[in-house]
Write a structure and sequence with these properties.
Chain lengths: ~900, ~120
């Protein structure tokens, strides 16, 4: 240890030590000379004698220098110097290679950063691996949701009756109007309502204050826990706010604690936490069909997940049997917290990982290819050095050093690029969870270093081994006048190219499919008005709007005011609009169709609409009538319902649904009369229309609303005037989601577009790399065969024949790669299927376009060297060595 | 790291280090003095070349047995002086006893009389 440190120190002080030694020996010499002079020698003789006695000073210096060096480091430094000199000599090649590696390593690093944060990094909870989310699972095939949120009653029974979990907790999303204390603007914030044991199940300690107690978890509770984000943003991170009041929906809450900065569950948008029962009315606490709860459970160390979830399923199965006329699922299902948060991004992320891996492979193969070409050009040098006694390992090491240098330089540039790229991805990719927790850190850097090393080995080892493996004699012979050209180097390059082209084809096809999918979806018609439509959401605070009359009056006054604005063609009120992906639904029964024994309940999406909603969105009426203001029943939702075409077709085939009755909210005896049938719309861009029920939006109990206004001009120019109308009615009411219909669709498609364009960028880059590779191989081949071609031409070969000869030579690996790539794409298409909506994974257009593109690019890359070959002057060619 | 060949009076391996340390017991000295003392005390049998002296001094310094500083020589020349450290003193004791054992062993093999000046003075 000690010795090693000394030798390292010595290594870096060699130069200084040498200078000192020189001085020391000079003084020694001077002493000796002085002594000799004292003995009576002449000056010259004294010097001569001293030199004879003391020996060669350079030898001393050299031996000391060597004594101070470490052989391994010395060799490494020499290799490094040699490699960097070789690279400097061909700056064009080096820059291209470094650029390629920078892009590949940069992209991989960015993606790894995201994948690690989103999919791999455990959440900042105690023992996160023993936490699971528990959902209800319906056996019904037509039910669109695989992981259905639980009802409060289910959660309570699960917790009381099963013993597989150490504990279970539940939370449900909610939102509040946070009104300003002083001059702050009111704002709408997303809140979580969590059971009192939620934070202890997760193992999260408050940064300040405390969490809820069991006694505080009740209806009308008035305690609140802030997230760090809100604490910092709104309260300037001032700890003295503990115990102070804030107003949520005009109701006063006491701040009892602040969550740690690391707590961003389930997303950053969630800003405060209130007790679970404070948002769940007591009459719903034991309801089994009021689905709103996300259940998180901690496994007991001695019980398996399967066992624990089987116990929950057993309870749920019993509940299902006990409530045959309610939407109670038959079983339970679990998934990990990470999967739960990453649900929408996991597959696209994995797809991108595959794409980047493909690109990295192509990049490595490309650099390998370029190195093989250089290796071939330096065959003579290598052979001579081998003949002079250089060990093969030394030669391989030297060449590896080159690819190491390329990959290292590329890696440094790439990691720098990836920092920016990661930021851009986070900003662009809307669905990405825990976005601010994603950053480059030591682990990511270690990954990139590993990647660099692997890439360097991949790119360097094959060329190094192939270029040093030849017998000295063969290589030296080949360096004399050659006619045939060495075939082995070319064969290696061709097979590298084949693999490269195959990988390119896979990428091209994947990107083609994604792009087509995106373009098709972009052209999708939501089947309602999408131009010049402004939407805007608000939520009335219950404390202030405490009677049904106040609520309906506000909605109606607002609609009348906006409708009276110049330039507004039509207005409507709903709780959402088509294209937002909202999947709120309910089970229902048809009074006129008695249900057979054992028959499953049916589900349909639930929407709310006021009399003007359908006209504002230009959704046509198929049958019956729209709502009128006469349907508005202040006490309850008008008892009238409108269904869509898909609903009528599925549940009333060959029957007139008008006048029939639907029972919903099956725990109550609410019954609704069908008064109209409207045309289908798409609730999300990439899903078929679902059966939908529209209830009256203007009712005493509906505090939330989305205002829809169809305008004559640019809808966004109406955003401020409409908000002024709201402020005129209630200055404290915050407005959210001011969006045009186009923006809503764009937001939904944004991620798809990102995905398609990223994969396309990778594919185009790969195509460029592959064609550069093709061009390189063929130009090299041409210089190799110059003499041969000269002879052919001298013997009467036509230029066209030479051209064809060279072209076929270059296109062979391209064709082989194309075939291989197409075959592999058939398999890759299966993986892609789940990401495509209306596009088949074996889309003929995409395959044909890719094949044609690849062949024409390959043809172009081959044509240039082939054309040069055909223009050779035979006399010149024969003289070339 | 083979040492360069030494001329006529080849020294036993490792003995130079010991002798250098022994020389420094008398006080700090620079390279020239050290060489002179060894030569004089060996009655000019042992000739110390720069080629072996300086690597040896360097080695000793590296192991912490001597330390060095720049000073002025008797003739007022700038010279690097070497000083025996505490560790160096211990090392000298170790080396000396090993040398004595060795000398005795070699003497036994060579059949020389032990009585003379050998033994343990």
């Amino acid at each position: 240890m000690n010795l090693r440190r000394f030798s390292l120190l010595r290594l870096f002080r060699r130069r200084r030590a040498d200078a000192e030694l020189l001085e020391e020996m000079e003084s020694h010499m001077a002493e000796e000379v002085a002594e000799n002079v004292a003995r009576g020698m002449t000056d010259a003789e004294a010097h001569r004698q001293a030199r004879i006695k003391l020996g060669n000073p350079t030898t001393v210096r050299e031996s000391l220098w060597q004594q101070n060096s470490i052989a391994f480091v010395d060799k490494l430094a020499r290799d490094l110097r040699y490699a960097s000199r070789t690279l400097m000599r061909t700056p064009g090649f080096s820059l291209i290679a470094i650029g390629v590696m920078a892009l590949c390593i940069g992209a991989s690093t960015s993606l790894f950063t995201i994948v690690r944060s989103v999919l791999l990094k455990p959440l900042p909870f105690r023992d996160p691996n023993s936490l699971v989310m528990v959902y209800e699972r319906y056996r019904l095939s037509e039910f669109p949701i695989q992981y259905a949120v639980a009802a409060p009653g289910d959660y309570l029974d699960w917790r009381a009756e099963t013993h597989g979990f150490a504990d279970m907790a539940a939370w449900t999303p909610s939102d509040f109007n946070l009104s300003g204390e002083h001059a702050d603007l009111p704002e709408k914030i997303i809140a979580g309502a969590a059971t009192w044991n939620f934070f202890s199940v997760l193992g999260v300690q408050p940064a300040l204050g405390r969490m809820f107690t069991q006694a505080e978890d009740r209806w009308n509770a008035d305690t609140v826990v802030l997230t760090w984000g809100l604490f910092e943003r709104r309260f300037g991170a001032n700890p003295s706010i503990l115990g102070k009041q804030i107003h949520l929906d005009s109701k006063s809450y006491t701040i009892i604690g602040v969550l740690p900065r690391s707590f961003r569950y389930p997303s950053e948008r969630m800003q405060v936490w209130v007790p679970y029962q404070s948002v769940t009315p007591p009459e719903y606490m034991h309801n089994h069909a009021y689905h709103q709860s996300h259940v998180v459970a901690r496994l007991r160390p001695d019980v398996s997940v399967a066992n624990a979830i089987a116990q929950v399923s057993a309870v749920q199965s019993r509940l299902h049997a006990e409530h045959p006329n309610q939407a109670v699922s038959e079983a339970a299902i679990q998934r990990s917290l990470n999967d739960d948060l990453a649900q929408d991004v996991k597959k696209p992320l994995l797809l991108l990982v595959c794409a980047v891996a493909c690109m990295l492979l192509i990049g490595c193969l490309n650099v390998a290819n370029l190195l093989v070409a250089r290796g071939a050009a330096r065959r003579k040098e290598v052979a001579i050095r081998g003949a002079l006694g250089a060990q093969r390992w030394t030669l391989i090491r030297e060449q590896l050093m080159e690819s190491m240098l390329i990959c290292f330089a590329g890696g440094v540039v790439g990691v720098t690029l990836s920092v920016a790229a990661t930021q851009w991805m986070i900003a662009t990719w809307k669905n990405l969870p825990s976005a601010s927790g994603i950053h480059v850190d030591a682990e990511v850097l270690a990954f990139s270093c590993g990647l660099m090393f692997i890439a360097a080995l991949l790119a360097g080892l094959m060329p190094a081994i192939s270029s040093t493996g030849k017998s000295v004699l063969a290589a030296l012979q080949a360096s004399a006048r050659t006619v045939g050209g060495s075939l082995s180097g070319t064969a290696l390059r061709k097979s590298l190219l084949t693999v490269e082209i195959a990988a390119t084809v896979i990428l091209l096809i994947a990107s083609g499919l994604l792009l087509k999918n995106f373009l098709q979806l972009r052209a999708t018609n939501l089947r309602c008005a999408t131009d010049n439509v402004l939407t805007l959401a608000y939520s009335l605070p219950q404390a202030k709007y405490n009677t049904p009359n106040k609520v309906t009056t506000f909605h109606e006054q607002l609609l009348d005011r906006v409708a009276a604005m110049p330039g507004v063609q039509a207005t409507g009120l709903g709780q959402t609009v088509p294209g937002t992906g909202e999947v709120e639904g309910d089970a229902f029964l048809i009074t006129e169709h008695p249900r057979g024994a054992g028959e499953d309940l049916s589900f349909a999406l639930v929407r709310r609409a006021d009399p003007g909603y359908f006209r504002a969105l230009e959704i046509p009426l198929v049958n019956g009538r729209f709502f009128t203001r006469l349907d508005v029943d202040v006490e309850h939702r008008g008892q009238k319902v409108i269904i869509n075409h898909a609903f009528a077709q599925r549940h009333f085939p060959g029957e007139n649904p008008i006048g029939k009755h639907l029972k919903v909210q099956l725990w109550s005896d609410a019954e609704y009369e069908i008064v109209g049938v409207v045309a289908d719309t798409l609730h999300q861009v990439d899903a078929p229309p679902e059966p939908t029920m529209y209830f009256q939006a203007i009712s005493g109990s509906d505090l939330d609303g989305t205002l829809v206004a169809r305008t004559t001009g640019d809808p966004l120019s109406f955003a401020i005037p409409v908000q002024k109308q709201i402020a005129a009615l209630d200055p404290e009411l915050p407005v959210s989601d001011v969006l045009t219909m186009r923006q809503i669709i764009g937001e939904w498609l944004g991620d798809l577009q990102l995905m398609a364009s990223l994969v396309l960028a990778f594919a185009v880059l790969s195509l460029v790399l592959a064609s550069v590779g093709l061009y390189g191989v063929l130009s090299y081949l041409m210089t190799q065969r110059t003499t041969e071609l000269g002879i052919r031409m001298a013997l009467g070969a036509q230029r066209q024949q030479v051209l064809r000869l060279m072209l076929t030579d270059g296109l062979k690996p391209a064709l082989a790669g194309l075939g291989l790539g197409l075959a592999a794409s058939l398999a890759a298409g299966r993986v892609l299927r789940s990401l495509l909506y209306d596009t088949q994974p074996l889309d003929a257009t995409v395959f044909v376009v890719v094949a044609i593109t690849l062949l024409s690019v390959a043809m172009l890359a081959c044509l240039i060297p082939a054309w040069w070959a055909s223009r050779l002057d035979p006399m010149q060619a024969l003289r070339t060595e | 790291m083979a040492k360069k060949a030494q001329p006529n009076s080849e020294m036993l391996k490792g003995t130079l280090d010991m002798m250098v340390l022994r020389t420094l017991v008398g006080g700090d000295a620079h390279g020239h003095t050290i060489a002179k003392i060894i030569e004089r005390n060996s009655e000019d049998v042992l000739e110390v070349e720069q080629g072996s002296l300086y690597p040896a001094l360097h080695r000793l310094e590296d192991r912490g047995w001597v330390s060095s500083y720049w000073g002025a020589s008797e003739n007022n020349r700038k010279a690097k002086f070497y000083k025996l450290t505490a560790a160096g003193r211990k090392q000298l004791v170790r080396e000396t006893s090993r040398w004595r054992q060795m000398r005795r062993a070699i003497g036994l093999v060579m059949g020389e009389e032990l009585a003379g000046n050998g033994g343990g003075q």
